[in-house]
């Protein structure tokens, strides 16, 4: 049937990020799905949740992935986050916050809400950044899903997503209460439709 | 130079069914499909970038309306949930806010039933018993019953003997349990001589002379769909446009220079089939004790992930005597993580409950979610803006995500209909204490639809329809539109069965046009025989 085999994703050079840019993007991802700190000196993760969040799940790997179409722009977005955090009258207090990651969680959340709101003409970019950070947690698109399910601490496990069989396919042999749970509409015809 | 009798653009329901009948009639047929070709052995249970779930899927964000659709040979039939109800008869009398009949007089439920019957045999489509209903569908039925309502197992095109209830349907069915076009009409069309060209995206149609058209395409990179790797054209006597309701108007608009003036209704009157999703987080104790449901000891439900999409619908509000916009259905639904959870909202004060700590907590109960899918009668409010330079949308990521030109501003008629359906869901779930219910946020991408319709619709009135009742584009003989864009209104049920039945009904008319253009073709009225890999 001339079906195509699975081609590899295009491999381009991954974007290079400074330590500070990485920190800002991690703080952004941690605002989308917050997690616990990775260590005592982890100041990108705000630490408002007791369990791993988007950063732990690999948000930076997703954001840097060429498939997203935004990897070229994330360094600049990281810088913008820091600039906005410093802006007088902005989300941070000019004398305290030197970067986005310096903001407490509530302030980070307020700024992200503003950036992704309809009122922001540039919301498309921020929404995509938020979407991919979010997906790192809830679907980990940078890795095969069956492999993700072997790691405790990924979002899919925390959500209670079921495990696949050994061949990497999901099956639910028992899937029904198997009894009549409501009367069907009185007008239902022999094909199961309304007239 | 390539010349065929008929070019078919797109290989979903409309395209595959048309290709089959034209090839069976003896015409030479070429199907141009922008997406890749995958089959059961290629489909994967994975959310990974570049796996089948992103290769065959398409999400186009618009202004106030985003469209989810397919991008592969077989089109939406490969990614769909295969719920295949027929449209209730009163829909064909809809008048909308224009207060004019929107469907052609020639089409009623009675006149369409023989065509639905053919689709039912070809796929096949059948009704299901309660032991084939997933836990999620069963729970929805039981709650409806508790509220004094009926609930119906949805007819479907799933072979439940083969189905493993994996709910990976959007990534393609690894079991061939889901009856897609890959298993019937497409192999049938090929057997009758049609050729199918995957990764060929049509850009525009040009009129050559009184009875010939030229279809221009670009060849698409197999991984990075933003890249074109070649281009060409095919000449033909008849063009069947079946690119789906999010794409057909775009490529017709771009063709205006080469075709001449298009009917006013091209790219107008788009309907999202009135869709809206609510998320219920189910209280397991409450449904266990009040409804007597038990999945296993100590667990009544917790089965969001298990099943095969929507399998039960509440149809009590599809009352023919009720006024337009007051009739709606609510189906239970499944959507996988990723696009299926990001729009879920906690409803917390201050808004923007789609992200943050509260959202993480909501996600921790994901297994207890029940998605409710409202299908109201919307008011055809969508309008397409000027087309992008190429393709159907500006592609943002290598696969999957794009930014389109559709604008949608729901009128009060539509908003009030959604409010009524929301109230019904609360009546059935919240009031008896079975769980909390919140609607998906519209803040991020506006409304959204998996059922794009009506953007190039059939009708009797040239002022408000682009196609006559044979699906021929007004003023452009030899161009037919046979896909969801031809369906004039929201349906209150899943649309594929109707798109397929309309394609069956249009086929003899398209063959007739081929004959009038000197092609030795004869409509045979055959149906494809089943193929399984
Ligand atoms: C997740 C999901 C679940 C669904 N579940 C159901 C369900 O249970 N029941 C139901 O009835 N419906 C369901 N649908 C809707 C159903 O898939 C569509 O209504 C149906 O496929 C529309 O058929 P169509 O012929 O209009 O176009 P499509 O099936 O969308 O086919 C159009 C084809 O044209 C191709 N194309 C687009 N542009 C071009 C171009 N420029 N050049 C060449 N090719 C092009 C596309 O890649 C696609 O393959 C679902 C949809 C989704 C997304």
TrEMBL record, chain B:
Gene3D superfamilies: Cholesterol Oxidase, domain 2 (3.30.410.10), FAD/NAD(P)-binding domain (3.50.50.60). InterPro entries: Cholesterol_Oxidase, FAD/NAD-bd_sf, GMC_OxRdtase_N, GMC_OxRtase_C. Its cofactor is FAD. Residues 448-503 form the Glucose-methanol-choline oxidoreductase C-terminal domain. Its EC number is 1.1.3.6, 5.3.3.1. Coiled coil: none annotated. Keywords: Cholesterol metabolism, FAD, Flavoprotein, Isomerase, Lipid metabolism, Oxidoreductase, Steroid metabolism, Sterol metabolism. Residues 47-269 form the Glucose-methanol-choline oxidoreductase N-terminal domain. Belongs to the GMC oxidoreductase family. This is Cholesterol oxidase.
């Amino acid at each position: 049937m001339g079906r195509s085999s699975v081609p590899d994703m295009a491999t381009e050079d991954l974007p290079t990020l400074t330590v500070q840019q990485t920190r800002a993007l991690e703080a952004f991802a941690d605002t989308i799905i917050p997690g616990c700190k990775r260590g005592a000196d982890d100041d990108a993760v705000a630490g408002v949740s007791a369990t791993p969040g988007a950063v732990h799940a690999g948000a930076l790997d997703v954001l840097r992935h060429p498939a997203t179409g935004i990897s070229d722009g994330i360094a600049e977005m990281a810088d913008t986050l820091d600039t906005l955090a410093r802006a007088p009258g902005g989300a941070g207090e000019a004398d305290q916050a030197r970067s986005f990651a310096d903001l407490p969680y509530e302030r980070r959340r307020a700024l992200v809400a503003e950036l992704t709101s309809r009122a922001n003409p540039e919301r498309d970019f921020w929404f995509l950044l938020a979407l991919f950070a979010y997906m790192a947690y809830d679907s980990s698109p940078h890795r095969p899903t069956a492999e993700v399910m072997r790691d405790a601490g990924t979002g899919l496990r925390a959500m209670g997503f079921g495990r696949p069989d050994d061949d990497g396919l999901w099956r639910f042999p028992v899937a029904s209460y198997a009894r009549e749970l409501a009367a069907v509409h009185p007008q239902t015809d022999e094909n199961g439709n309304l007239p | 130079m390539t010349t065929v009798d008929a070019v078919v653009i797109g290989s979903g329901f409309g395209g595959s069914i048309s290709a089959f009948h034209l090839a069976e009639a003896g015409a030479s047929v070429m199907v141009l499909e922008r997406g890749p070709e995958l089959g059961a052995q290629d489909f994967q249970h994975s959310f990974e970038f570049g796996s089948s779930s992103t290769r065959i899927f398409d999400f186009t964000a618009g202004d106030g309306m985003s469209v989810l659709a397919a991008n592969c040979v077989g089109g939406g039939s490969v990614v769909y949930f295969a719920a295949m109800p027929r449209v209730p008869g009163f829909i064909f009398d809809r008048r909308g806010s224009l207060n004019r009949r929107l469907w052609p007089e020639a089409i009623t439920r009675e006149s369409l039933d023989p065509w639905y019957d053919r689709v039912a045999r070809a796929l096949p489509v059948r009704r299901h018993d309660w032991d084939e209903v997933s836990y999620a569908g069963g729970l929805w039925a039981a709650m409806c019953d508790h509220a004094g309502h009926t609930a119906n197992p949805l007819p479907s095109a799933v072979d439940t003997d083969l189905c493993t209830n994996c709910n990976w349907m959007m990534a393609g069915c690894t079991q061939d349990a889901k009856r897609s076009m890959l298993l019937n009409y497409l192999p049938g069309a090929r057997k009758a001589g049609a050729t199918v060209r995957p990764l060929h995206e049509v850009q525009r149609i040009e009129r050559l002379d009184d009875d010939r058209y030229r279809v221009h395409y670009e060849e698409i990179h197999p991984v990075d769909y933003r890249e074109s790797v070649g281009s060409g054209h095919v000449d033909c006597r008849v063009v069947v446009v079946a690119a789906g309701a999010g794409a057909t108007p775009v490529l017709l608009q771009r063709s205006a220079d080469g075709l001449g003036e298009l009917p006013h209704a091209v790219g107008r009157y788009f309907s999202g089939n009135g869709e809206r999703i609510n998320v219920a987080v189910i209280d397991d104790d409450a449904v266990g004790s009040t409804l007597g449901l038990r999945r296993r000891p100590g667990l009544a439900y917790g089965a969001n992930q298990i099943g095969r999409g929507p399998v039960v619908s509440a149809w009590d509000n599809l009352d023919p005597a009720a006024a337009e916009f007051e009739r709606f259905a609510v189906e239970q639904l499944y959507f996988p993580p990723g696009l299926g959870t990001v729009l879920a909202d906690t409803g917390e004060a201050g808004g923007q409950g789609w992200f943050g700590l509260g959202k993480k907590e909501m996600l921790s109960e994901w297994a207890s979610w029940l998605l409710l899918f409202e299908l109201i009668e919307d008011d055809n409010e969508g309008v397409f803006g000027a087309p992008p330079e190429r393709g159907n949308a500006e592609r943002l990521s290598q696969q999957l995500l794009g930014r389109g030109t559709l604008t949608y501003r729901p009128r009060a008629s539509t908003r009030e209909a959604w409010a009524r359906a929301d109230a019904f869901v609360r009546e059935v779930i919240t009031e008896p204490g079975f769980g909390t219910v919140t609607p998906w946020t519209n803040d991020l991408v506006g409304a959204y639809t998996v059922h794009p319709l009506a953007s190039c619709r059939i009708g009797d009135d040239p002022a408000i329809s682009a196609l006559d009742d044979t699906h021929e584009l007004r003023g452009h003989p030899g161009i037919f539109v046979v896909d969801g864009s031809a369906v004039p209104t929201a349906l209150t049920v899943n649309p594929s069965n109707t798109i397929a039945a309309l394609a069956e009904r249009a086929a003899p008319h398209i063959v007739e046009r081929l004959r009038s253009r000197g092609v030795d073709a004869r409509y045979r009225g055959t149906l494809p025989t089943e193929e399984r890999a």
